[in-house]
Design brief:
This is Ribosomal protein S18 acetylase RimI-like enzyme. Helices cover 24% and strands 36% of the residues. It is built from five helices and twelve strands. It has helices at residues 56-69, 83-91, 125-141, 205-214, 228-237, and strands at residues 16-21, 24-29, 32-41, 47-53, 74-79, 95-105, 118-122, 167-172, 175-183, 190-196, 219-224, 239-249. The radius of gyration is 22 Å and the shape is elongated.
Length: 252
Amino acid sequence: MNSLPFRPGLGARPVTISRVAENQWHAVQDDLTVGRGYASRRLDGRTFLSIDTWQDAIFDRLAVAMLADQPAPRYTVVDETDRELTADWERAGFVVARRESEFAVPSGPIPAAVPAGVTITTADEAPLRELDQAIRAEVGAGPGWHTMPAEVLPWQGGTRPLDPAKYTVAVRDGRYVGLLRVATRTRRPRIGLVAVLAAERRRGIARALLSHALHNTEATAEVDETNTAAMALFEGIGRRTGGSLELISGKA
């Protein structure tokens, strides 16, 4: 968004901010909509805000109205290169909570040997759920879920079904020790999650999972920049194509 300064003078016309739907706000001037705000609630329960306007003053008024209507914490995502939009949200009281790098994994085989004693295969639901719960417990006790993509935050009640068809798993001695989930709803497959039990890390299991699942398919991935192991993995097999900032207002 390229913000243009809005400097009311003697002839300035009033702007009305209205909540026109549960998740939408409009800024209206002379019967014309000059700004829009949106709130979306993600599956993890977090509320993300966005504002579409060219004028700083209208952005500020929409932000005030939206923040007053939405309980804390509130979030937004900004491209790392969009300094103007970042400044707009910071002016509204938002601070950077997370920096994420975006990677493209090019087509072509990923050089990776399957570690001795490990088999890469498709998943069954019962052992997959057991591994999923074990990984969630390790992440929750360690780096925390703020380092993971939003869609893999802990499920409320733990009752959301797992679809084994979306997963590739690593098995040692009959036990699942690593998993990979690839989403295919976008133009290019997206790596939704790759995770390995702590006791099995640094043995090449994650790389073997990626090599097995992707074959010659180009894919994308987003990685929290504080996750040094994941950053090193994707810097080794892909190229960085950009990044984004997740900002927060109010305590999580």
